[in-house]
Amino acid sequence: MRSVQIRGRLGGDSELKYLQSGTAVCSFSVAVNEKRGKGDEAATETHWFRCNAWAQAAERLHPKLKKGAFVSIHGKLESRSWKDKDNKPHSAVEVNCWIVDVLPPFEDQQPGAGAPNAGDEIPF
Description:
Helix content is 6%, strand content 53%.
């Protein structure tokens, strides 16, 4: 199975469209930052994921998925290909979402929430 789990921020507001069948599709892009290197040599690389939520989930999520929102996504990687009007081939890899959680922004979380304090015993 091509399942994926990502956490990141939305790069823009989501788009809600309806297929000819009437099925709702909510599309959005998620940016995930990855730090590479250490110290002064550290650099941040940003990876972008195009995501789609479907049907009732799409309609429910659309108002919540705004630029900058912090999200956790679980879904399936899907590749698709097509030709444009000039017959030029294109392809894309997208995440078809099973679960989309809109998380509180980092600023709303208390420092160290959920993490043990230095000196606390870890019971395992």
